[in-house]
Amino acid sequence: MDIIPTGPVPGSQRLELLDALRGFALAGVLVANLEAFSLYYFLSPAGAAAPPTFAADRWLAPAIDLLVSAKFITLFSIMFGIGFALLMQRIGQSGGRRWYLRRLAVLFLIGLLHSAFWWGDILRSYAVAGLLLLPLARMRPRNLAILGVALMYLPHLPWWQGDSSLAPRAHAYAAALVAFSSEHAATMLRGNHAFDLWWWQSHWRVPASLPGLMLIGLALGNSQVLRDPDRHAGFWKWLLACLPVGLVLALLVTLSDYGRLGRFGDATAPWRHALDQGIVLLVALGYAALFVFLFSRARWHRWLRHLAPVGRMALSNYLGHTVVGIAVFYGIGLGIGPRYGTVAVVCTFVVLFGAQIAFSRWWLDRFRFGPAEWAWRSLTYGQRQPMRRQPVGGADSTLAARS
Q1: Measured in Å, how far apart are the chain's first and last C-alpha atoms?
Q2: pLDDT tens digits, 367-377
Q3: Nearest CA to 281 among 247, 234, 256?
């Protein structure tokens, strides 16, 4: 059965596709982040073998690394660039420049506040990397894509070296595990600050690659491939071919890293970072293409469209991950920690993301924006924005809620 749409995609349907794709990306981000919130991320090999769920963990953990880790945050970052492109198309580059800069400044402040509680915050990096999009917004999509790939790989060149004076990974992880398991909020916050500094210095290539990923998203947003997927079915089929290639390479690397295949070089070597970055980009773009194709099929569309409200409230839901993750796993919350391994990660994901799907739909039936989106927008404009949906002009309200 042909899975390509049979006609042009109307504007409202295209926005629904992008919102749903963003919700899909956020689901994968949640799985990866819950592994860190559960503190399983910080366990030594001996510690990872201790939970009673070890028999399942030894298969679930590699599966998460293979299918999820880094792939969905890459897709989520690409979506940021796509969102910027649509934003500029609506407000115009000249008239919206100052507004966009205020928007990034507020996002940076939200990220700073968020990072005080969780070291894995990505909003700060998005706000800084987003500055590059404005002067390049009018470049041709092909040139944007080429520049994006180049900037994505720039931090992985072998002559870019990290800080050799940083504490060893095992020491930093052990200290973080103790701090996050503590029942004292002050201890947790100090440990979070210390690990935040260590992680971003030792993993500096992650934020340094974000501008490139956003430019790839900007290229997609400025082109016609998302405006009319039917007309550009060949492009999406080509992009879909990236998925099996990326997954095969990811499988080889994952099996090697987990000792189930011959050692595939030093995982900390720059060339390995470059290979890993290429793999996650192939898989992320393949996931996007697969989603676009499935979204066009009626039987899949009925289910996938439920992700659209989650994507429209991406900031609120992303911050909600931190609230629930700390409340369930950290010592200052329920203190479950890593005792149930990745099984707890999967179970928490099912419950939490299912709740976010239901809550997002309920909320947006009544309000124009998610709670965090409303605060972001109000602070950007410097005045309180209307929150409740208007009984008349629903279409306008829906469009405004996406800006």
Answers
A1: 36
A2: 999 999 999 99
A3: 247
Which amino acid belongs to residue 69? S
Where helices occur in 223-313 by DSSP H, the ranges are 233-240, 242-257, 270-295, 298-304, 308-312
Phi, psi for residue 388 in degrees, rounded to 5: -75, 145
Task: Tell me the C-alpha distance between 157 and 359, whole Å.
Answer: 44
Indicate yes or no: pTM above 0.70. yes
Cβ–Cβ < 8 Å for 78, 145: no
Dig out the tokens for 229 from the structure. Answer: 């997927």
* Separation between Cα atoms, residue 139 and residue 235, nearest integer Å: 20
> What residue spans of 226-265 are helical by DSSP H?
233-240, 242-257
d(CA 38, CA 328): 8
Give the other-Cβ count within 10 Å of 354's Cβ.
10
What are the helix (H) ranges across 70-184?
71-91, 93-115, 123-129, 133-136, 141-153, 169-181
Angle between helix 341-364 and 314-329 (nearest 10): 140
Q: Is 89 helix (H, G, I), strand (E, B) or coil?
A: helix
CB count in 10 Å sphere of residue 299: 9
Q: Are 85 and 137 in contact (CB under 8 A)?
A: yes
Q: Which amino acid is at 277?
A: Q
Q: What is the pLDDT of residues 71-108, one digit of tens each?
A: 999 999 999 999 888 887 776 655 567 888 999 999 99
Q: Which amino acid is at 230?
A: D
